[in-house]
Amino acid sequence: MQADIAHNILIQCPVQVASNASMWQRNRNYGATMATSCDAALAFAATVLLAASCARRVDAPVAPLVADGPAVAADEAPAATHDAPAVPDDPPTEAETPAARPYDPLAVPPDIEIRPADYTVRDAKRRREIPVRVYLPPASTAAPVVLFSHGLGGSRKGCTYLGTHWAARGYAAVFLQHPGSDEAVWKDAPPRARRATLERAASTRNFLLRMGDVPAVLDQLAAWNERESNPLRGRLDVTRVGMSGHSFGAVTTQAVSGQAFGGRTPRPDPRIRAALLFSPSIPKRGGPAAAFGGVRIPWMLMTGTRDESAIGRTDVAARRAVYPALRCEKYELVLHDAEHSAFTDRALPGEAQKRNPNHHRVILALSTAFWDAALRDSDPARAWLRGDGPRSILQPRDEWQFDLPPRTSARRARTSPPALGPGDHTVRLTVGGIERAYLVHVPPRSTARAPLPVVLMLHGGGGKSGAAARETGWSAKADAEGFLAVYPDALPRDRSRPGRFVGNPRLWNDASGRFHDDANAVDDVGYLAAVLDDLAAKLDVDARRVFVTGFSNGASMTFRLGAELSRRVAAIAPVAGACWLKAITLRRPVPMCYITGTEDPLNPIAGGVPKTARGGLQLGAGKRKPPVRDSILAWARANGCSTEPSRVSEKGGVRTEVYGPGRGGARVIYIAVERLGHTWAGGKSLLPEFMVGKTTDRISATDVIWQFFREHSMGAAQDPK
User: Fold this and answer.
1) Domains of the chain by range and CATH?
2) Sheet holding 128-135, edge to edge
C-alpha cells in the first residue's frame, strides 16, 4: 500500500531527486548545506486509494484549535530584504484613480523593511504544534491574510521573496510549517536515505494533518487578533483570507479550497476567498472534472513547461489538466522553461536550465494582482489582470489565460442580474430523490455590489415556512438590513399526505429520536446544505455570513446544523429548543445566542416533559427535555469557553449570561426573558395562550439575534454588547 501511495507523489527537495542515478550520486552531498524549501505534491489519489480503510478518518471532523495562551514565539527572524524590482513610487491606494497613477502590482514603498516574526500554534485537541512565520506590512491597520503551505521537506522559512513582497503590498503573509512533512524528515538522514525518508513522509496521514493545520491556524490567528497582549492584535483582517502553496502545499491548498475527494462532497474552509496554486496536480484516479468542478472561489494556477517530477511521473500535461476542469473564475500562467523549483527561493542542484530572473518578477506581479482583485475587490487590479497587464511583463513564450464562469458574481462583473429579484420566492429542489422546497425573501438592495448575508429561519414542529416568516418578522428585517431571509420547510411525518399542524406535522430530524425512528431516515442536514448551495447558484451570497436560527424543534435542528455544518455556518441562534446531540464536535468555533422564556411550558427551563400551559397535556412525544442550561454549557464547552459566565446582567426582566471568549474568540450568550412562554419574543404568536403561554415585548428576538449575527461573520471575534 505504501508503495502505491508513493507512486502518486511528486518530490522536489534540497537533494534533487533525479531520474538519472549518476546525477543523484553527483549531488547527494549538496543538500546537507543547502538552505531552501523542499517541495512536492501528493496526488489526491492517495485518499481515493485508501477510501475504504480511511473513510472514517477523511469524514471525521478536524478538531479546531484550543487556544493555550499567548503566541509562543520564538525567535525573531532577521529583517528580510525585498527582492522585487526597485520601483520609486509608492503602490497605488484604492483612493487613487487609475488615471492619476496606473496600477502596478510590483510597486512598493522605497526603503521598506519587512521583519518577519515566528510563532507557534498549539492545537491541543490534536496534540500538535504548527510553526508559522508572519510577514506583517508596515501599516498598523488590519491587513488581509494570505496563508502559504510549503512543499514536502520544506519549512516556514522558504519562499521569502513571496512573503516580503506580499507584506510590502499590504498583506499579512502567514507561512505554515507542517510537522511530519517538513524539513525535519530529511535533515538528519544520511544523503542516500533522504529520498526514501521523503517518500515515507508523503503519506495520507500527513496529508490529512496538513488539511487540519489550515483551519487550526486560522482559528488561532482570529484569537491572537483579539487578544490584548498579543503583538498581532488588530493587525489581521481575518474576514479576507487567501490560501496558497507549492507542490505538496498546492495539494493542501486544493483540499481546503474546494477539491472533491473520490466523489465526496468537497468541504472547503469558507473563510478562504481565493486560492493560488504553484505546481498544482490532478488526482491519479478519478477524473479532473469530478475533482475540480465544484470549486466556487477564484483559483490562480502557476506552472512551467519543465515543471515535472521524477517520482510520481507527474508531467506538465497533468498539471495543466486542472485548469480546464475548473468552472469557477480561473487564471493560468505557464512559464517557459520553468522547472519545479522555479517558484521557490533558489535553484536546486542538477536542474537542467539556468534560472530566468524574469520568472520571479512575473510570479510576484500576477500573484499580487490576483490578491488585490480577490481580497480587496480592486477594480484597477482586476482590469490589469484581465487586460494587457500580464502581457507587459511576460516573455514571448510564456503562456497566460483566464476565464470567468457564465454568471460571475455581481461584485466582480456586475453584468448579470441575480436569478431571483426582490420579494418572496418559493424555490423547489430535489434532494436525495425527494422534492422539497424553501421560501426566500430577497431584499430590494440585492442588486448592490456587496454579496448578501443569509439567515436561515427553521420553523417549529408543525409549522411551515410562511408561518415562520409572519411570526418572526425576519423579512422586514432583511429589507431594512440587506440580507436574504430564508425559510426552509421540514417534511411531514407522512410524506404521502400534505403537512398539517394537527394530524401530519412537519418535523425536523433534530437528532432527538422523538419524531423519526431512524435518525438518518430524513437527511435534513443534507437538505439544508443543498439549500445553501442552491442560493449560492442563484444569488450573490456572502459565504462568510451564513447564519442559522430556529424556533422549538427548529431550534434543536439549529444546534444540529451548527455542529454538522460548522465549516459553513458563521453563528447560530436557537430559540426555545434543546440540543439533543450526544457529543458536539465543531470543525471551527460557532458562536451562539440562545433565547428562551422563564415560563415556557414546552421548553421547561429546568427540564422535563413538555406540556401545554394549561391543562398539562403532554407534547413532544412525551420525551423529557434536558435543562436549558445543559444545552448552553454543552455548546460553550464545544467552543472552548469556560462553563462559568464571564459576564452576567439583568435589566427589565431580561437576564443575559455571556460565556467565553473561547477558541477563535467565540462567545456563547444565554438570554432568559421573564414570564415569556413558548413564543417568539417581540413577534406574533400564532398559537393560543392556553397552549404556549404568554408572549412579550420586553425584547425583540429578531433584533437581538440580527445584532449578534452582524458581529459574528466567519473569522470575526467581536465582543457582544
Assistant:
1) 2-82+98-403 (3.40.50.1820), 423-710 (3.40.50.1820)
2) 117-123, 128-135, 172-176, 143-149, 236-246, 272-278, 299-306, 330-339, 399-403
